[in-house]
Write a structure and sequence with these properties.
By secondary structure, this protein is mainly alpha-helical. It is built from 9 helices and no strands. About 75% of the residues lie in helices and about 0% in strands.
Length: about 200
């Protein structure tokens, strides 16, 4: 059922969130049928873009990564996406009691996974690593993911929209803090020798 929700989230998100709420989908099935597959899109596109296409700063030469370096970085990025979805989902479940969510089962990871769908899909643009194109497409993907969060949280959690707005804002704040934390971890990892290696 997981991938069948993807088109619906892009075309009629309110009805699709209702459908997702009515599904009895485990986290394992969600990962197997949705997250593991879609998270491959930006990882594989990034590998292709950095090794085959390359990028250019100004009028300088085209810069590419070695295959082994790109593979290592893309695998770390893929693992970070999988872990990030789960961690944010658990934060959502933790916050649920504060916002008086009365659900028979935790739905945080489900919300996090489906909210990230536009980011996964538009990650295909990483195959063409132009900074401006990637920035515009990335901002569009993030904006739609934020829209899905605010639209879907009250529906999935069965709470009023005003409480859902505050809940979604808390989730967004956690996501931003995690993003900053990921940047800090990247700097540490690079300093340990796992940084990019360029072709000569």
């Amino acid at each position: 059922m997981s991938l069948s929700h993807t088109v619906g989230l892009l075309t009629h998100p309110d009805r699709e969130w209702e459908s997702i709420r009515n599904d009895s989908e485990s986290i394992g099935k969600l990962y197997l049928g949705h997250v593991l597959l879609l998270a491959l899109i930006p990882a594989v596109a990034g590998f292709y873009g950095t090794t085959q296409v390359g990028w250019q700063i100004g009028d300088g030469q085209v810069i590419r990564l070695t295959s082994s370096s790109a593979l290592q970085l893309c695998m770390l990025f893929y693992a970070a996406m999988l872990a990030g979805i789960y961690i944010i989902g658990r934060f959502i479940d933790f916050f649920a009691a504060t916002y008086e969510v009365k659900n028979d089962k935790p739905r945080g990871v489900i919300l996090a996974a489906y909210t990230a769908t536009p980011v996964f899909l538009l990650g295909i643009i990483a195959a063409y690593p132009n900074i401006w194109v990637n920035m515009v497409v990335g901002l569009a993907a993030i904006a739609y993911s934020v829209y899905l969060l605010y639209e879907g949280l009250p529906i999935l959690m069965k709470i009023p929209e005003d409480r859902g707005f505050m809940f979604a804002s808390s989730v967004l704040t956690v996501g931003l803090v995690m993003f900053v934390g990921l940047l800090a971890i990247s700097v540490v990892v690079w300093s340990m020798g796992v940084g990019p290696v360029y072709t000569s």
